[in-house]
Specification:
It contains eight helices and 15 strands. By secondary structure, the chain is α+β, with helices and mostly antiparallel strands. About 30% of the residues are buried.
């Protein structure tokens, strides 16, 4: 880490620097990157916390913060060290619900500035460790239409028949046809409150989506395959190309607008300038773990554990394979590691194009 250029973090529109301190390890070997205000944002004595209401009580001041229960341990720290440090530094008292019990963290103190300072530091901790949580949901365009599934199974059968002698090509690395999809973006929703909030934001997107689609489903064609890396002889992901039948960019615009909305709401982290729309048909992550979702967000295996496959013959023989056409009429908030009666990911919420 560059001492003169410490990393910054944005919390509710304020910029804070990550202070360079001795690394401490707590439960699950998590690092505790304690953070304080940047030089341009030092907390003044009379400063209030913009994002939370600090109430005056008979004994001083009080502020309640909504924090998912899975993040309590990072505020408590190993043997309570982090909480004691926060309380000592800010001269406040921090009350945290029991593990597993959803509730609010309550901060009390004799002065408004002290409570505000503690709130800010708790927020920084929460934001820092939230980013380390695995994603739980993702926005998806389902591609599991029966016609596309049939086209996929034809592709799979032909590849196994004609290319099974190529290195790494085997049945286990093919996508489950019931789970064919396009990933728009991933979210870490840590309790039911956050899931409901994400569903509400998805509903807010319906108007602009219907403006783009003119209130009609999008006719898509799924034709051709491509690979993710530079060497076709060492491929980890092979995907089907998806385009709107009328050659418009409506699907891309919808995907980018969805990401923009959810990033602005603080529910999603922007990873790319534009969404990479791809329907995975083969992925080496599936080789040892068939439950892994292809979302461009990684899997349980490290890169070194993945065995790439030789896709040169597949690309040569099936590079223009037609999987089929279908009408896309929905975007879903899909739940990771959960399926519905069709075999597709369970939906926490959805909106239609028409």
């Amino acid at each position: 880490m560059d001492v003169l250029r410490p990393p910054l973090i944005n919390i509710n529109g304020r910029i804070y620097r990550r202070n360079i301190i001795k690394e401490e390890h707590y439960e699950e070997e998590e690092e505790f990157p304690f953070m304080g205000p940047s030089e341009s944002e030092e907390l003044a004595e009379d400063e209030t916390c913009d994002a939370h209401v600090i109430e005056q009580t008979d004994k001083g001041y009080r502020c309640a913060i909504d924090v998912p229960s899975v993040l309590y341990k990072y505020i408590i720290g190993k043997k309570g060290e982090t909480r004691r440090r926060l309380e000592s530094d800010t001269k406040t008292s921090i009350s945290i619900p029991k593990p597993g019990v959803e509730g609010q963290i309550v901060i009390t103190g004799s002065s408004k500035a002290a409570v505000s300072s503690a709130v800010t530091r708790v927020e920084v901790l929460v934001e820092s460790f939230r980013k380390k949580q695995p994603f739980t949901h993702f926005l998806s365009f389902p591609l599991n239409d029966s016609k596309i599934q049939e086209g996929f199974l034809r592709f799979k059968d032909k590849v196994l028949e004609q290319c099974s002698q190529d290195h790494g090509v085997e049945e286990s690395i093919f996508q489950n046809p019931a789970k064919l999809h396009l990933t728009v973006g991933t979210l870490a929703l840590l309790n039911e409150v956050e899931v409901r909030r994400a569903c509400e934001h998805l509903q807010e997107c319906q108007n602009f989506i219907r403006d783009i689609t003119e209130g009609k489903p999008l006719l898509l064609e799924v034709t051709g395959i491509e690979y993710m890396n530079d060497d076709p002889a060492m491929v980890d992901v092979l995907y089907a190309k998806v385009n709107v039948k009328d050659a418009s960019d409506k699907l891309q615009v919808i995907a980018d607008r969805l990401v923009e909305h959810f990033v602005s709401a603080g529910l999603m982290v922007r990873e790319w300038d534009r969404v990479k729309l791809h329907g995975t048909v083969m992925n080496t992550l599936f080789r040892k773990d068939s439950t892994v979702e292809d979302t461009c967000a990684g899997g349980r295996q490290t890169v070194s554990e993945r065995e790439a496959f030789d896709a040169r013959n597949i690309l040569k023989k099936f590079g223009a394979h037609c999987f089929g056409e279908f009408e896309l009429n929905t975007v879903q908030l899909s739940q990771r590691y959960s399926t519905d009666c069709t075999g597709y990911y369970s939906s926490a919420g959805s909106i239609n194009f028409s």
